Amino acid sequence: MPTVAVVGAQWGDEGKGKIIDLLAEKVDMVARFSGGSNAGHTVVNPQGEFKLHLVPSGVFHPGVTCVIGNGVVIDPAVLMGEIDGLKARGVAVDRFFVSDRAHLIMPYHLLLDGLEEESRGKGAIGTTRRGIGPAYMDKVGRIGIRAGDLLERDTFREGLSQAIEQKNRIITGLYKAEPVKLDEIYDQYCQYGERLAPFITSTDLMVAEALEQNKKVLLEGAQGTLLDIDFGTYPFVTSTTTMAGGACGGLGLGPLRFDGIAGVFKAYCTRVGSGPMPTELLDETGERIREHANERGATTGRPRRCGWFDGVVGRYSARVNGFSSFILTRLDILSIMPSIKVCTAYKLDGETVVDPPYSASALARCEPVYEELPGWNIDITTARKFDDLPEQARSYVKRLEELLGCPASVISVGERREQTVIVRELF
Ligand code: IMO
Ligand code: MG
């Protein structure tokens, strides 16, 4: 299986960081295709605990080439901070490349993300305020600045001055805030350009060559399917295609290249930010999961909303991505539960539905219909084979396989690499 996409199947924070760090051992290249520094991927390995926002979670394996594709929006300050932080802790960042076509997050994107959120009042999306939405708006609005532009100063200055003229009309006119300054931003980004120059290249060509040579390539997603701009709980979503298909446009690779698509699901659900989440537990059980699992955002530190596994959005996620298998994370957390609920349908205005409605307000009215499964109540963090898991845990996984319509490939039973059960090899 040379080319496999690994994507979030719920509302983000499914534990993609651990999984990609683990799988990266087997591959030649890890290529990230979407999102930006809104992502927060926690990796715990022999080198320590790391929180990555932009650098692919394959960086800890010396032989692996890491690529940030054109579909990612890059905040150069965050990227350089991350590279410096990794180097300071002894992680080499030498086989690392950034697409010349990747759009940059500019200071006015950060400013506008905050201003837009505040103007939404009670309807705020609860963004990470990392400038993601405004940066993708400029990309689609054809007024964005791309990484490669930093290497062509005249083009850069011209594009930047056009963009700033437009932004300042909005910043001062609409939001009555202080305008941003062209020279300041230009000088700062020229400095970033000098530092980033060795990394910036046509990564689409690198990916094509790797595929040509039958190298193993892991396509790394960020966020989750329910945060997808088209198939998420719009408007409470991020501004990109978070789904597997996004790897095509986000890296420059044809859809026939995929050998596998693995969706990462947490054994329960979490969500950070606003928007509907039918299985959210606002009671003691939700609090117990949050505390036991330390469910706090890696990017913003916000407490995550917790709830039972939602099989309705799960099946939907499997359908719109075309998962060939799923990866289940944090199964060990459920060991504290005497019994475990799984949502298999919703009640919506008196009707039973098995597909999530398209609108966020209808989804917010959905009442989960639960099936209750017995818990196992013993520590499973030492399980390394499927058969090491207690019967109840195996039944839980089997029930999820039925609901999702695809088999489990990897099950994580702890934060460390070795705390993993491989059911089916992905590479
Ligand atoms: P990883 O890759 C969880 C959420 C935000 C907010 C919405 C829009 O770690 O899974 P944005 O800043 O993207 O405009 O915010 O999306 N969000 C995430 N939630 N994990 C993430 O990334 C997220 N990235 C964005 O909380 O609700
Ligand atoms: Mg995260």
How would you describe the overall organization of this protein?
By secondary structure, this protein is an alpha/beta fold. The protein contains twelve helices and 20 strands. The strands form five sheets. The chain has a ten-stranded mixed beta sheet with strand order 9-7-5-2-10-1-11-15-19-20, with helices on both faces. Strands 14, 16, 17 and 18 form a four-stranded mixed beta sheet that branches. A two-stranded antiparallel sheet has the order 3-4. Helix 3 (107-120) packs across helix 4. The termini are close together. The mean pLDDT is 97.
In short:
With 427 residues, the chain is α/β, with parallel strands linked by helices. Helix content is 32%, strand content 20%.
Shape descriptor reads: globular
Largest sheet: 10 strands, mixed
Summarize model confidence as the mean pLDDT. Answer: 97
Task: Give the amount of beta strand, in percent.
Answer: 15-25%
SS-based class: alpha/beta
Present as ligands are: 6-O-phosphoryl inosine monophosphate, magnesium ion
Q: How far apart lie the N and C ends?
A: 5 Å
- Quaternary state of this entry equals single chain
> How many H/I helical runs?
12
| Radius of gyration of CA atoms, rounded to a whole number | 21 Å
Structure summary, number of beta strands:
20
Please estimate the helix content.
Answer: 25-40%
What's the layout of helices and strands?
Layout: E1 3-8, H1 16-23, E2 29-32, E3 41-45, E4 48-52, E5 65-68, E6 73-74, H2 76-88, E7 96-99, E8 103-104, H3 107-120, H4 132-140, H5 153-174, H6 182-196, E9 200-201, H7 203-212, E10 217-220, H8 246-251, E11 260-266, E12 269-271, H9 284-293, E13 305-307, E14 309-310, H10 311-321, E15 325-329, E16 339-348, E17 351-353, H11 360-365, E18 367-374, H12 391-404, E19 408-412, E20 420-422
Parallel strand pairs: 1-10, 1-11, 2-5, 2-10, 5-7, 6-8, 7-9, 11-15, 14-16, 15-19
Antiparallel strand pairs: 3-4, 12-13, 16-17, 16-18, 19-20
Helix pairs in contact: 3-4
Bound molecules: 6-O-phosphoryl inosine monophosphate and magnesium ion.
6-O-phosphoryl inosine monophosphate binds next to helix 4.
